[in-house]
Amino acid sequence: MMPPIIYNVCVDWHRKTYIKKQDLENMKKILITASMIATSLAVLAQSGTNSPYSQYGLGTLAEQAGGFNRGMNGLGLGFHEHNQINSLNPASYASIDSLSFIFDAGISGQITNYKEGGTKVNAQNGNFEYMVAGFRLAKHLGVSFGILPYTNVGYKYSNTQKIGSSIGSSSSTTYSNTYTGTGGLHQVYLGFGWMPINGLAIGVNGSYLWGNYTRSIVNSYSDNYVNTLSRYYTASVNNYKLDFGVQYTHKLTKKDELTLGLTYSLGHKLGSTPQCKEISNNSQTGVADTTIHKGTSDLAIPTVYGVGLMWNHSGSLKVGLDYTLQKWSSVDSPQYQGMSEHGLAYKDRHKFTLGGEICPQENSRKFFSRVHYRIGASYATDYLKINGQNGPKEYSVSAGFGIPIVNGYNNRSLLNISAQWVRQDCKTFVTENSFRINIGLTFNERWFAKWKME
């Protein structure tokens, strides 16, 4: 039998060795996650829209919610989950389980019908949506990092008309304008959530915002006797973004609690001046004249205010309501020196979201009792005013499931699947109807557990 002193030394040595190996393994996983996020930067370059409305402003505003939020149509300002990343309010990071490392990534695919007058067109596209991770850094302090979209630009369409004989051309001569746009803005963030006292949490996300867009209007004619005029609008952004959040949870009864969530995003100029390159080409001589028109002001993002409520009953039923105000009216729309007014202005955007989640018993041995059932609906106004007319109003509903992944290795991860219908309604311009499928996979691994020997 081994002497007690030697036995204790050996046990202590094995315990320390085990902890060191565990720490190295956890660090290795963190580095792998970070490298996966880094490689996703190239994937984010693709556009997530075919909407002609993305030809205005910074593009169409992207959904910045994770997989579980999307099942409730983007609801989440008052939600704080122990097993999900809620980047909509960074104060929620303080509630992440102390033994978990959470990694969440999502993709989407959609079919959209565009209608204007008597013309209807269908389009399909898919996109990588987001990649986020989070864990408990210290007691009452959670951290999260990841990549989220901000805006998308992606469209292509054209129109063709006949030229009248008044300009000396044959009545059979036609001209076409082709409108094309690609690009968008993205953000990589690092956030912290801290709970200084029980029930009150504060948080902040610091983001690096980057991206670019190229929009073009290319003019062409059916014969070679008329000058063509083409315009190329470009801009490139490299700047920061700051988002702050607060959550306060009040116990109503032994089984019921109410959480108030507040968010604030700092609006500021992006230090990027757009420009327009105008090319006039003489098809007979082959001579092209190029003029550069600089923007009269820098691009900017608006100040954003958000407030949300969430009622939680026994952790099995959660119902919430969010309201968000984006102060776009204080942001200058792009104008260009030496060019006439092109009829674009910004206005404040309002969004209301109502939704909820039911999970009968999260730790039950019965599979269907552990499933998360979600539903949500939203109404939002647009931030664009085009030729004096308001942009499209947005109506959307969604439903989804959080399906537990149960195997011999892991029983804490979730597959988040949701379906969403979005209608962009505008009588003056194009009306859009989209059906979207969102798929997100949340890996939840038990990390940081201390080794104990009795």
Describe, in plain words, how this protein is organized in 3D.
This protein is mainly beta and 454 residues long. Helix content is 11%, strand content 55%. The protein is built from three helices and 22 strands. A 14-stranded antiparallel beta barrel has the order 2-3-4-5-6-7-8-13-14-16-17-20-21-22. A three-stranded antiparallel β-sheet has the order 15-18-19, with no helix packed on it. Strands 9-12 form a two-stranded antiparallel sheet. Strand 2 and strand 3 form a beta hairpin. The longest helix has 40 residues. It is elongated. About 6% of the residues have low confidence.
Major beta sheet, strand line-up: 2-3-4-5-6-7-8-13-14-16-17-20-21-22
Radius of gyration: 26 Å
Q: Regions with pLDDT < 50 over 5+ consecutive residues?
A: 4-20, 39-43, 165-169
Largest sheet: 14 strands, antiparallel, barrel
Structural descriptors:
3-stranded antiparallel beta sheet, elongated, 11% helix, mainly beta, 454 residues
Task: Summarize the model shown.
The chain is mainly β.
Topology:
Layout: H1 4-43, E1 60-61, H2 67-70, E2 100-116, E3 119-138, E4 141-162, E5 174-197, E6 200-221, E7 228-251, E8 256-265, E9 268-269, E10 275-281, E11 288-294, E12 300-301, E13 304-313, E14 317-326, E15 344-346, E16 349-358, H3 367-370, E17 372-380, E18 384-386, E19 389-390, E20 393-405, E21 413-425, E22 431-446
Antiparallel strand pairs: 1-4, 2-3, 2-22, 3-4, 4-5, 5-6, 6-7, 7-8, 7-10, 8-13, 9-12, 10-11, 13-14, 14-16, 15-18, 16-17, 17-20, 18-19, 20-21, 21-22
